Amino acid sequence: MGAAAGWLTTNFPDDPxxxxxxxxxxxxxxxxxxxxxxxxxxxxxxxADGQMLPAYRYVWPHPGAISA
Length: 68
Prior knowledge:
The protein has 68 residues and is an alpha+beta fold. It is built from two helices and three strands; from the N terminus they run H-E-H-E-E. It has helices at residues 2-11, 26-34, and strands at 17-22, 38-46, 52-60. The longest helix has 10 residues, at 2-11.
């Protein structure tokens, strides 16, 4: 995440950053929250095998807000 945040800061310093995390991936959710990500809600996403699974969207207002 540090390398991605650095690249984004160089190339898109003022743009918000977001990613999706499956709701059952508790470790990833804690990881992104520890990096300052804010959970802004869930949506159903189609998994590779066709299952519809809930996922949370984590958002940072700009790349510099991603804590390393």
